[in-house]
Amino acid sequence: MIGVRRNRNKDSPYTAKTPLTRVELHVHLDGSLRHETIYELALKKGLRLPGSGSFQDLKNYLVVKTPENLGTFLSRFDIILASIESDLKALERSAYEAVEDAANAGVIYFEARFCPHILIPLEVRSEADDEARTKWVYDVTDALIKGLIRGQADFKSKGNLIATSIRGLPQHWYEDTLTLVADSSFHGGRIVGVDIAALPDTHDEKSMLEDVAVSFFDRATKLGIRRTIHAGESGGPSQVTGALDLLHAERIGHGYRIVNDPNVYNRIKDEKIHLECCPWSSILTGSIPASDVPHPIVRFFEDDFNVSVNTDDPTITGTRMEDEYRLLSNWGLSEAHYVKATFNAARSCFLPETEKADLIQDISKTYGFTQ
User: Fold this and answer.
1) Which domain holds residue 333?
2) 327: CB partners within 8 A, 6+ apart
3) One of 85, 233, 276, 324 is an active-site residue; which one?
């Protein structure tokens, strides 16, 4: 049973035992780096730092405190990615630390998004030499998986990967990603699905439905690869419909804008499409105005949607799961909703069915529920 994390890392600042009772389905691995790790790596690599170059100035830059737009929110990734790009040791370390941080937040299982191409050397990303580019894609993925496996052994929280393509960028990125995810003999089942997301210069969600993306998700579906799509965050309800009908989405990342179209809203409810909601992120990206009452996630819970609670990018939001729950408590939700969200997430995760059943059983035992 994986009910309680016992810290075995003698150098860790964490010492408390934390019940592992949460499941997180929408978190970006490169958006989960510790500020201390980014600062250490940035200094080592001689990167230009914001402000005076102090750690506090870096942290103040990375953590968004007031609502912005999605493109500005995502701009923080420039320095985050520069600190880990093409550094296999740093990537393994980051994945390992992500597992430790998840465990200390009470997360028993998480699915972390990553785009291998933004982690490889810049000069290789668009190279005509497919062999060199593919080798790097595999190398960075291998480093992340090693970190996840080591972290699981030490902290008893399990993390798998979701390979993410980037809107509006080269077709060969899609091809590489499909080859990577289909190669289960390489990743041993640690890449459990695919997604499409954005960088600051591709955050216009219209490009999500471009022909190359539609072809990619058609092929992924035929290969039996699981699918979750960023939609309905800065794009409208019709984008969610496109994600379902054109990209064969099984889950929707965010999805808040469905409240603007009763037909789409009712479809998501009736078909029990899982919504990976990220409450504080939705405010900071400007997707949902802070003045909107009630927040869509409150409606989702009240209307018995298949919805979960997630952090999205802890490095930038400055939140962990408990912070998200506190925010939801301010909006009138309770622990009963969070428990329900956990089981929604567990049932909607991309684990094989036998592992999913084991996960649900472990959570139930930790809560003291009987089957």
Assistant:
1) 18-366
2) 279, 280, 319
3) 233
